[in-house]
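user: can you give me the structure for this one chain? tokens are fine.
assistant: on it. calling the predictor now.
[tool input]
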Amino acid sequence: MKKHHQDIRDLIYVHLNQTDQYVMSYGIEFNEFAAAFSGSLNHLLLLKHRFDDADFNMHTLLEYCPDGRIAKLAAEDVYSYGNFCWIDFLEEEVLNELTGQEIAELLYLGHQKQHLKLPFYNKLGNRFVYLAHDDGWFNKIYYRSFKDFFHLLSLAIADKLGTLKLEKSLLGIRKKRSYPPVNKEILLSLTPFIKEGICISLKDADHQRSRIEIPIWVIGDFANMDDMYEEYEQIAGKPCHAKIIFDKKTKEWKLNVI
């Protein structure tokens, strides 16, 4: 029942696993991720990819994307790669210090999309491990700090809202509206819900004259995004659990938990 690629853009599913420091998501793509951390991402050691402008590291026998080429990678149709997995690292020299055991753990991560041990390596200084299948469809991202996750989510919601309802200008050209990022405090206060698994539905947003209300449903923990989407379709007709509200006059976000 896999949804068409376009459907990914107007529904966000996030489930936060605090113990193992990862977030499962649907609806946030690598180009949005790269934009959120633009200028602060380190080099990416590519565990699964189809990027043809990568460099090769002899010690690990793996390719990597230098930080200067991340924008080029983000502009690719990463969704079409199928599997797309990477771990960031500070400089190439550190790759040459990885032990056989550590390389084996990294290969396992890319292959199984799960860890043998928590995948934060002091040698690499990595902030993330990014494990995706059909990027944007199934993403499992390990975060050294969940602050980074909330930063990404706050920008992704605002960005999607701007892309979704393009306004026609006088010349009939559709232009993207820009919205401020959702306050981190609002998203942090949703943490108990996010730990259960939530859908934030831009497609069901209620656009009123003075405000925009984006509904949120708590739908549970899913590893299979077909099942998640089916659950969303079941629950979308029912009252939501919370709303993120954008006030058009004050240009501020509010949260309403129902």
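assistant: here you go. The chain has two domains: 29-135, 157-257. DSSP finds eight helices and 15 strands in the chain.
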